[in-house]
Amino acid sequence: MDWLLPEPQNRFNELLAYNASHRKWTGLILTGSEITLLPDLPQLAQRARASGFEHVRIQTHGMRLASETYCRELVDAGVDEYFVSLTAADAETHDRITGVAGSFDKTMEGLENLDRVPGVATLTNTVVTAESYRQLPAVVERIAHLRHLAQMEFWVYLPMKERDEKNLIASHLDVQPFLLDAIRLARARGIGAAVKNYPHCLLGEYQDALDNGQPKLFVDSRFWSEFARNGFDQCVHRAACSSKECLGLTTAYIVRYGWHKDKLSPLPPRA
Fold first, then answer.
1. Where are the beta strands (DSSP E) in the chain?
2. pLDDT digits over 133-155, tens only?
3. CA dihedral (62, 68, 70, 74) positive or negative
4. Which of 126, 131, 128, 127 shows the shortest CA–CA distance to 141?
5. Which of 36, 96, 107, 176 is the most buried (most CB within 10 A)?
């Protein structure tokens, strides 16, 4: 992500024109290193809604949403879904992970601001790393009071390389009890819960939480060669497993933790 080129304006214009003519898509997600740094983000959202997109979502760390005025500007422009990154349940851990002092307080203030605006759906994403996985249940409890919180997502970290050079990959076996507890807590409060990049068989009674689907992505084409470096679909049980959703283990994971032959198990064929 340090060198990928952003999508040029003409590609965005072509996308809007195509959807205005064909109405192929109902939702658009705007994302980037931090989408709220775009000064014309409200105008982009307005144009998207005028081109037939019924929903416009942004992926953001949420710090700029600490400004209630800015929140209102985005909502008035047509941004009705907010996918906010929340790395931990407390300021000390969150700020250490983000490397930005005060980021937790600003993100939390942004979530509270969104919760006061009608017609808005809030989603959160917590990346599951060696630094964050123990916090997953506490993250749910910290924000479960939000009325507009529709879904919490837990994305297991991918290094985009063959080695975990940053030492951020956590063992799936260590993560398991914390992840399952977080799913349980979220659903008990009527909040959706989704998991990405985690072995299907380790989700137990929450196997329906695995969702590795992605929307159509318009991105620098070089992204895909980097993405492939993760080396998905590696599992000793792949040939016998019925799961169509599981991405298996990655190369970096296997290098660090091995194959878990005795811990993973193939899902039986579905009726």
1. 27-30, 55-60, 79-85, 121-128, 149-156, 192-196
2. 999 999 999 999 999 999 999 99
3. positive
4. 126
5. 107
Sign of CA dihedral 80, 102, 179, 212: positive
User: Is beta strand 79-85 parallel, antiparallel or unpaired with respect to 121-128?
Assistant: parallel
For residue range 184-240, list pLDDT tens digits in order.
Answer: 999 999 999 999 999 999 999 999 999 999 999 999 999 999 999 999 999 999 999
Q: Does some domain include residue 31? A: yes
Structural domain range at position 215: 9-220
User: Residues 160, 230: contact at Cβ < 8 Å?
Assistant: yes
Are 131 and 97 in contact by the 8 Å Cβ rule? The answer is: yes
Token look-up 């808005």 returns 120
User: Structural domain tally of the chain?
Assistant: 1
Which long-range contacts does 241-248 make (Cβ < 8 Å, 24+ apart)? 241/200, 241/201, 241/266, 241/267, 242/266, 242/267, 242/268, 242/269, 242/270, 243/200, 243/201, 243/267, 245/200, 245/210, 245/211, 245/212, 246/199, 246/200, 246/201, 246/210, 246/212, 247/197, 247/212, 248/199
Is residue 24 assigned to a domain? yes
Q: Is residue 4 part of a domain?
A: no
79 in any annotated domain: yes
Closest CA to 59 of 124, 108, 104: 124
Q: Do the beta carbons of residue 60 and residue 36 sit within 8 Å?
A: yes
- State pTM to two decimals: 0.95
Please state the separation of Cα 184 from the chain's center in Å: 19
